[in-house]
Amino acid sequence: MLKKGIYQHYKGQLYQVFNVATHSETEEKLVVYQCLYGDYSLWVRPLTMFSETVEHEGKTVERFKLIQEVE
């Protein structure tokens, strides 16, 4: 399961992951997280998308990388 903590997006911004929620209709797993910049807004993203790898500058990298686990 996805760990709670501070993640860095492959483009550099930081986010705090609070938990993984379940969509009430589809039962899809959604990551609940907050931007640690700007308006500090809350977001959700499918767990599969949050955890996937992407191509960036010719390399395969994690979309979000855990940099500090928070209990």
From TrEMBL:
Gene3D superfamilies: DUF1653-like domain
Protein name in the entry: DUF1653 domain-containing protein
Domain DUF1653: 5-65
Pfam families in the cross-refs: DUF1653
